[in-house]
Protein 1
Amino acid sequence: MLRGNMLIAHGGGPTAVINSSLLGAVREARRHGEIETIYGARFGAEGILAGDLMDLGQVSQEQLDLLSRTPASALGSCRRKLTDRDYPAVLECFKQFNIRYFFYNGGNDSMDTCHKVYQLACQSGYELRVMGIPKTMDNDLAVTDHCPGFGSAAKYAAVSALELALDASALPIHVVVMELMGRNAGWITAASALFADRMPCEHLVYLPETDFDRQAFLSAVQEKWARGRGLLVTVSEGIHYADGTPVADTGRVDGFGHKIPGGAAQALSDLIMAETSLKSRAEKPGLLGRVSVALTSPVDRQEAEEAGAAAARAAVEGKTGYMVGFEAARSPVYHCETCLIPLEQVANAEKKFPLEWIGADGASIRPEFQDYCLPLLGGCDIRFASLR
Amino acid sequence: MLRGNMLIAHGGGPTAVINSSLLGAVREARRHGEIETIYGARFGAEGILAGDLMDLGQVSQEQLDLLSRTPASALGSCRRKLTDRDYPAVLECFKQFNIRYFFYNGGNDSMDTCHKVYQLACQSGYELRVMGIPKTMDNDLAVTDHCPGFGSAAKYAAVSALELALDASALPIHVVVMELMGRNAGWITAASALFADRMPCEHLVYLPETDFDRQAFLSAVQEKWARGRGLLVTVSEGIHYADGTPVADTGRVDGFGHKIPGGAAQALSDLIMAETSLKSRAEKPGLLGRVSVALTSPVDRQEAEEAGAAAARAAVEGKTGYMVGFEAARSPVYHCETCLIPLEQVANAEKKFPLEWIGADGASIRPEFQDYCLPLLGGCDIRFASLR
């Protein structure tokens, strides 16, 4: 039995349910006497480096209860990529606060950090249980069936696209283009097509997994528009031409050195207006797609909490160097269980949207994705009146 | 008692609750034997000119029940501005279908059209009861206390801004700028400040009722950012400099000849990055702000239905040439009743956001607006966990 304190930290962009993972980890940790003080790092790695920790034992039951309905990170997060020079300070913080249980809740960059902390502890002979808790709306972590945060982002994309399709068909004066998050992986944008068969207008969807073809796009837009039902185009922020050039290049990079995308919908809307006689308008809900309480998936919320709890349970049982993952069955009914995945298998790895789930036209999504994704939305039977 | 058929049509951009007004009008009309066939115009004025009407008597009860949960226009709408040359065709359609009750559901442009139809009927000696049913998310119709569609748009803006504020404070690496709809009137954007006192970050809000000052904006951004809590800027699509130049000019005009705004958030975000050392990102939910079922205000939905019903009731009672409006009391509790407003008082008139409700800094909203607006959201007690 390893006695000592626990530290949990968030890394990267928050999701609608990252606080549910925090709640799950804290609730489970409180059940185990060997975990003494439960700390949370203020603003992720920044808080660890600065020794800026909160005592989560002092948090009231009321605040804990609110956590599962609170989007964004209640601890605070950051995009700081730790360098080799930072790791001694991390270890110093752990020693200073007698941290023996460390949980890092993030995406593939954060799992890389988590893996390095694990290696550091091993090399230094500092007894530490290190567990990654998955979090990414992008759904691009390797090995795991899916990621906490994705089900809610997918629900937001699917419902928003269907609602927008109603508007696009009711006032069919412009092609409506909506941009969704996802730099390299098109999972969220694919989810915008989940209810495509219920849309009263035409729909085209473009993911970053394929090369964007300007002429094919303009031809598809004109052909679909000619059907007279209105047209919705949904597009990932990260779409690019065959030579790798982004369709919209902001010229900016984030703290991890990754290019910041954005503006793809406006670029396509401008393209439509420049090259056809059609009008177009662009929408970019952006961060709204990861904070909506109303469109949070209850399944996602519950699984995120379970992922946090499973991390704490595994650590107490002596496991270290793993990320919690999900194994799911979808037949005869959806069933999901946690599993443990060695951190080195997920660090910096990226799971893209399967090319075989993209339609032959390059602008639609095949039904296999519905089978995969719909259960993650947690019941979402949307029906609208149709009079026309 | 005037026996004959009824026609209802939608004009301009849909709202989250315009179909509730349709439902209210149809349900009420069905109670009155003198209204024989109930027609809906496909795509508003376009349908009237083309004689393209739907028999709403054929619509199933199931479809009617779905209407109040269906955003966008179930009839279809258009932005076509009728000209003097069009009105004979309108009268022709009315005669052909023996229309004796005409309901036009729209904003101030549509009320102008409605008023002209009323005058046309009077001048032609064609017996017709004409009623306007208000609809505009922009809340800019004159005389009435507020407009159906606004409560839901306000709820979307208020909740989205608060959720975005959580994200902006949790990962305070960029100034987050969100653009909201409203060409000339800032009601919706003002609603983004309804929960400003619960935001964990700083907030600045800019409406089109004031002139946008570039230097004052940059100073305010830097001062607010220096407080270290993150910063959310919400801005109306129609903001402009003192000389009237839009902060973002798309160069496009709509069917009514109005300039189409858009891109203000991106323009401000670019400005921040060009003129300060801060990072910034822009979000533009755009049309999503008028189609969200999850964020529809139940009060708005119920009032929209009542507005439709009141129009039908008044017409049967012999009234013509009016728009249904709202009279509301907010003390001791919110109470709202319909009233009738002569169409000439609302045609083309525009009610802007009161300057006295804008804070002295030009970038905040005074509490008087909360008193006015919060009841329209229909109960929206949002609480979030706060750990930091």
Protein 2
Amino acid sequence: MSELDRLFMDRALELAARGVGSTAPNPAVGCVIVRDGRVLGEGYHHRAGEAHAEANALAAAGDARGATAYVTLEPCNHVGRTPACAQSLIGAGVARVVIGAADPNPKTDGGGIRALRDAGIRVDVLADARAVQLIEPFAFAVRHDRPFVALKMAMSLDGKASATQGTTTAITGEAWRLFVRDLRIAYDAVMVGAGTIRVDDSQLTVRPPSHRLRPYTRVVVCETDAVPASSNVFRGVADYARTIVLAPAGARERFGELDAVANVTFVGAASDAQLDLRAAMRALRDAGVQSVLCEGGPTLGARLLAGGLVDRVYWGVAPRFFTAPRAVPVLAGANLATLRESVRFDRVEMIGEDALLTGRVHV
Amino acid sequence: MSELDRLFMDRALELAARGVGSTAPNPAVGCVIVRDGRVLGEGYHHRAGEAHAEANALAAAGDARGATAYVTLEPCNHVGRTPACAQSLIGAGVARVVIGAADPNPKTDGGGIRALRDAGIRVDVLADARAVQLIEPFAFAVRHDRPFVALKMAMSLDGKASATQGTTTAITGEAWRLFVRDLRIAYDAVMVGAGTIRVDDSQLTVRPPSHRLRPYTRVVVCETDAVPASSNVFRGVADYARTIVLAPAGARERFGELDAVANVTFVGAASDAQLDLRAAMRALRDAGVQSVLCEGGPTLGARLLAGGLVDRVYWGVAPRFFTAPRAVPVLAGANLATLRESVRFDRVEMIGEDALLTGRVHV
């Protein structure tokens, strides 16, 4: 990758970021059309059903003959609700296409790249780490029957979620709060366990609101018992989809009260008094959720990990100590000592006064 | 600071690093003499009693008239076992002195800088963060009656030191092991609690051995009971000082066996059955230890924190999970929830596959 290629791919990634949170079930994509070092046109995918990034950039460029197109994701070569982008690029007469990440969809199987090359266009696939991470949830969801699940937890340096049971301790700082806000925007849904609703009674909204176009989904995982129908998470908010409650089919009678305020999705057999978490994640996928950000609590986090259902962790470590007889550990209620999964950190840095450790979970 | 100043201060810091671990009770110092952008001479302080960095650099330079001296620490202006460096620089006719960090010794009180300026030499004090951190333990020890104490712990992402009680779990990777080796070299003493000796039976040595010149000190903190005299930490090793055992004066009869293999230092009154940790740290300072690296275990770490006796933490976070019924928390046995201390992270980064979080502890 030349310096100039890096510069224009950076710009395409910046453009793609504007669509993050609004494009599902499509991934966010950005595109820049360049000739002789000069930008002719820029574009990004705004939302599903609307023009793709390449179409927007080509329209802005006007005449793109002999130009280079920088696009964060391999151009599609199928006609859906919009024309095939590979064909549009060929038709526009571009000389070269630089691709950030190949299309992970097995149905595509390099079709966009092949079509461009067959038309005599030079194609460079960068496999850029940021371009790959941009489509991480999308790449996962097209290959699996459940959503991409990220687990976000915050803890003290000594591994405690809070100093005392049953209370919320403000543990991380303001910069971390804004980081989590951006995460909530990037994921299709925000999910917590029933215990967290009972203790925190959080609304799970994005504040201040973002530019995000489509409704947010909030998910409450009830492993056995329901939560109060008066919980804040059920309060209707403009731009928010109805909250989804995942509940065991065998406990149906305990969830009657929630029908009026939430989408209660019963999972498993009528004999299941406990929630089958894997089946619950599949149910979310069926509801159109490609990516979930789980924000705890300690029991749900541990059970998701124990079930091999976590694909990325975002760990916030606050620069303080909470060890005490009634302190709440960051994970609890499952045995993870024999877990084969471990994390490969890909980003370890300070977020304000706190530390962020994030990485993919690998078996 | 100009680009050139930064370059030569970087070089002086590199030179200083060669003395780390060998210069106590003096700090490590490096010096570069430069004229017209050309290095005339370099030097560093090798060990206490021998020539200072400035003297070595001036000797290497020969004629230093009109030159700039880059020195990581304010030059001394007192005649000790060696001549005063400020006077040597004045005598050599240097035109400018660039200082990385001011001398933290209240007895010096800027005397080196004043002497240089009074002689008409231009002096720039950079307060460079790395130069300040290089002398952190020294700076602390000259102002307090106890050593600078760093607490180094390793834990899983869920805050566990090991997966089961009474065993050692290999938790962090090879790069972290080498990082800890370098830490052991940089501190005057390596310290652990009795429980860690009983479980790990570590020798607490530096492997592979370093260039370090003076003997290493190993410290075992026995809060109530002694450890076996056959423990590896008492094995005589060339270049290692006799191991210091800190024990409560009231438990003297339990430590008879250790007299033959260690320097048993009894702390407190004859009625003290439990160790007074603050008094124990003072005793270490009296034994010439300016800086201590405590490597656990969980109880000693927590008790040092609870006592306000930790000045820096080095936290290693391994990318795995150990939550389980018998898992050992990274800190235990003290109540830290009401602690006023918190950490100010100054370095958060990956060390191989693990994450390092380090920072000063502030009240």
Protein 3
Amino acid sequence: MGSRGSGWVTPENVGLLVDLYELTMADSYLRHGLNQQATFDLFVRELPPNRNFLVCAGLEPVLDYLEGLRFSPETLGYLESLKLFSREFLDYLEKFRFTGDVWAVPEGEVVLPPEPLLELRAPRVEAQIVETFLLNQMNFQTMIASKAARVVLAARGRAVVDFSPRRDHGADAALKAARSSYLAGCVGTSNVLAGQLYGIPVYGTMAHSYVMSFDDELSAFRAFAQDFPQNVVLLIDTYDPIQGAKNAVKVAKELAERGLKVKGVRIDSGDLATLSREVRRILDEAGLHDVKILLSGDLNEHKIEKLLQEGAAVDAFGVGTEMGTSYDAPALGGVYKLVEDERGYRVKLSAGKATLPGRKQIWRLYDDEGTMVRDVLALADEPSPEPEARPLLKPVMRGGERLSPPEPLPRIRERCLRNLERLPEPLKRLERPRDFEYPVRLSPKLEALKARMHRELVRAPAPDPD
Amino acid sequence: MGSRGSGWVTPENVGLLVDLYELTMADSYLRHGLNQQATFDLFVRELPPNRNFLVCAGLEPVLDYLEGLRFSPETLGYLESLKLFSREFLDYLEKFRFTGDVWAVPEGEVVLPPEPLLELRAPRVEAQIVETFLLNQMNFQTMIASKAARVVLAARGRAVVDFSPRRDHGADAALKAARSSYLAGCVGTSNVLAGQLYGIPVYGTMAHSYVMSFDDELSAFRAFAQDFPQNVVLLIDTYDPIQGAKNAVKVAKELAERGLKVKGVRIDSGDLATLSREVRRILDEAGLHDVKILLSGDLNEHKIEKLLQEGAAVDAFGVGTEMGTSYDAPALGGVYKLVEDERGYRVKLSAGKATLPGRKQIWRLYDDEGTMVRDVLALADEPSPEPEARPLLKPVMRGGERLSPPEPLPRIRERCLRNLERLPEPLKRLERPRDFEYPVRLSPKLEALKARMHRELVRAPAPDPD
């Protein structure tokens, strides 16, 4: 317990990152021969507060997990020590390989509830064992990408950098927040590990404490410029941002003599709109038109929108806590529900918890300008509802093997930015649109199937257990 | 990028889980000979919304990190590829060992802002490099422990189980949410990996989908009881909780013939207060007084308080999303600030961002009943303000080595429960007390030092950079 190095999730122990009931259910299914193919949909029932759409993220970590999932002797030893599981089940886990098929909406694509982000077909025991991890990863990463997309939209083409690691919920969150916000259109992150593992550009130069560690601000700026001549972004508000801007000009002139440049200045406090304009004027008067201004300090999409409305002179935003925790909606309620098994289509009826039967396809239709106009949710084996409709769910894994190598993150990011451009105007705004609902229609066949199944279930609702 | 297994934080790469500016600053400090001993306080400036106190958590993972922190050839190769850092700094990192001292409030102890949760003294470069990770871990885990303590208080002695993995922010969050909520008084978690790594009791039996996988509810209950005779907790609300309770009675009678018992039933939807009373009556009428009732379904401390006020018949609560994400206050704003260096005491003045100088001690005073009555924040070298005062900050690491082995988690949990008992009544309530503020006073010496330093800084505020 709590011994050195024991507190990490690793590829070797991640099989145990599972709710206990998944394993008890799986053991029981195995013993009772309930291990036929079953299909599960991972979807979100309704939009979280303050969100107009979702941006899919988390698929790559999920495929990585499914491909690599094994139960090591240590994990099996622990399970055995619980004195809960059958020998048969432990032997099954020892030889475990995920053998199922997965269809998914590519990362960076926009979806609307109740469209499935992912569908998985596998022997029921396998499908059950992977539920917790799939939800843990897809819920969090889709939540962050969806939040980051709002920040990116609010920034109207200006760069956004993830500054969230110190407030993210632990180590994996810091890593995946960097990845999810980058794929949603941010330009990079302060998180060096995300830089190494995902190739995301990393940003950062100095904190106020650095400036305070020197006798005065100008000495600090000079020291930094000397040490990192290619990466001179100066934090100018430790004492007084106007004087800081003048010091930055001084350093820029000194660097210019050596053929080097100040890349930018950062302002982290105060009235950012006013200060940024004054700082811009000081820089411009010194001919430093290409020195960028980066703003930070408890920013979110609303503050960014307001700053731009107030005419802030800004090239980039550093956004931390609010983006990395999805502060105003810090949980996404994605669920994972059985939609088909050896008995045929399956649905749940309960109010607010209803599901749609069967494997599906999401068809998206655009107008002549390329703007999304409506989605049709259909059964997977239906033909395209219109020749131009674009199918969103793609096969990504068959028999436990990926159908293609991991997508490069910049390509996912391009997809997301293209998706954000193609959003209907009301969904691009930060507020919930009042008189607009993006249409997600069921195909006539899915609608009819749903109605028929609901009628049948209502006729024979709960099996009488007596 | 995104290749198999690359998306994990491991003991080998965690050194890079750092904001880039920590490394650029560290490199610059090293080059400019600014590597003397410096002391940093990790503290929270003010209570988050809806919180009356904080419960310390995250120390053990932090000490584990500090002891094990190394920079592997792979991580150094990546840093070199950024073409930012000096050879001197990369060589320094190659030989990196944390050599500093740490004082900390033990996990499970209650603290009030602005009391430091942790103080670290180390060469400035080391202290800088570890900042991001320390904040990432302490902020998150203290936030969860503080939220979980509210849930535990609301449950008034009834058991609380962490059900949060599917909504936690990634893998590390799921693990640490289980640990932090357990140490704050929960009885266990659904998270099997937290069971293995931390020895936390694990809970869970079945989901609605399990019940639906059998022809009828009674068959599902019988199958489960047959497979897990020692762990029969039956989910009774898949169809109708009253009928479910009757089926549970039936299974209990069948088990009784074999000398076995139903341990409990779970209700996950509907009017939990009314249903639980009806279910209790059904169980009691069948003589099943020791079958426990577990309630779950989007619970939080307010709903639990209301359920108990309404007279719910309940032995345990399963709490997920709201506890595991600290939904109503999903970020803790802990900061890490220089309080002393080779030049002496250090403070920051800025409005709302002021710091207190010097290494400190927190002294806590209790009344005759053992209830907390006030804290005194003093300089570390001051004597106890009163003979009975209890010091909260303890030395935990010297020269980079732990001073004692990891504390057993049950002992931390006991400490937390004792702390919760000893809270003043107004802080135990879920609302912010209106006419009560728990006194956190500065010692006369710290008060005088602060006043003197502020006077001096105001007299010579910003060093004139010209």
Protein 4
Amino acid sequence: MLKKYFKDVENKSATLTDGTPVKDVYVRWLIDENDGAINFAMRRFEIKPGAKVPLHGHVQDHEIYILTGNGVFYNDSGQEEIVNPGDVVYIPPNEKHGINNSGSENLVFLCLIPYLKE
Amino acid sequence: MLKKYFKDVENKSATLTDGTPVKDVYVRWLIDENDGAINFAMRRFEIKPGAKVPLHGHVQDHEIYILTGNGVFYNDSGQEEIVNPGDVVYIPPNEKHGINNSGSENLVFLCLIPYLKE
């Protein structure tokens, strides 16, 4: 068993899965392969007010839980979802998605992603 | 993309992985196979004050994020961890673990578990 406090994990500038940096978006990898987690990873994102994660896609699905703040999740099929604390978002594999912080405080959420195996 | 609010998901009496009921412990399966999630599931647990999840084990690992309340996670090696909001716990595969709500309010946490494949 391994316990840590989220603030003790480094808050890094976020990048897309292809390495593209995303301005004013930060990520803590709370639980990952370095902790022995082999199936999926837990990340905690902070998106500053006005910042955006551009539309992008990848084979990994996402399971998301909104902790604080308000924002919009959208995909390339015209679906838009306003999110608030306590909302859950599931993004299936390969669905292109983007996120805007439309509020006045940080949009903070957990976003879990699988380590895929052949 | 699928969005829901956690309160719109049924809060069920919890059971251990072998089906044993656990008194005063409730679980919402926020994202699971019914949503198309094939890699892992997101559950939100509520443990009432004084309630306990007894020591038990299984092959699935757990990734846990404490939302509210206070409690103790322990294993069968004598390790005990006091948890508070913002704490993260990783429980490896097959490590026996138990949880006590040692506080005066509900102990609420997200607990994610893989769907294992051969």
